[in-house]
Amino acid sequence: MSDSDRIKWDAHYRGRPCRALAEPNPLLAEWLPRLQIDSASPLAADVACGSGRHALYLARHGWRVDAMDISAVALEGLAAAARAESLDVTCLLSDFEPVPPATIPPFEPGRYDLAVVMRYTNLPLIGKLAGAIRPGGYLIAEAYLKTAEPDSGPRDPAYRVAPGEFEAVAAREFDIVACREGIATGRGGQPAAVVQVIARRPG
């Protein structure tokens, strides 16, 4: 991202308390108990984590978490919230645009049992994430869907995916466990057109 994007997101989170007690996306809450994870100390990547509600939710449920975002301000708030609860969350200042090569940390081959990508549109990143997820590990993702109907999602179509597009990209690297396209709760409780994907690395 450009420096202006970084400044924009820092300004967005500055003065806003970390949403430590905010409910997670219902997709994560629904599927986390259903994942078949063998590790006694599983590790998740929360990509474009923002204020970190999903990272905190995962950590409260026994996961170690690498929380990644472009905003240092957001990560500072998340780190403070994690320390207050003695949660195992590592905050990593990360810029995913352009997509980072798979060789730089934390995208080490087979590092993660789970990657969570919520409402961040970056389809080329899915392939890079796949290599960082161990065989048998999972991707839980939700992205805004292109729609002719008004909703609470971003107005810029660059931040949305076409129907069937996200599933097709994920299916190149993952076995699709579930995929839903439709209306979910968006900003401020308003409806948003989204695609929801649960996928698993073969092996």
Characterize this entry briefly.
This protein is α/β, with parallel strands linked by helices and 203 residues long. It is built from six helices and seven strands; from the N terminus they run ααβαβαββαβαββ. A seven-stranded mixed β-sheet has the order 3-2-1-4-5-7-6.
Characterize the structure shown:
The longest helix is centred in the middle third of the chain and has 13 residues, at 72-84. This protein has 203 residues and is of the alpha/beta class. The protein has a single domain (3-200), classed as 3-Layer(aba) Sandwich (Rossmann fold). α5 (123-132) links the parallel β4 (112-118) and β5. 27% of the residues lie in helices and 28% in strands. It contains six helices and seven strands. The termini are far apart.
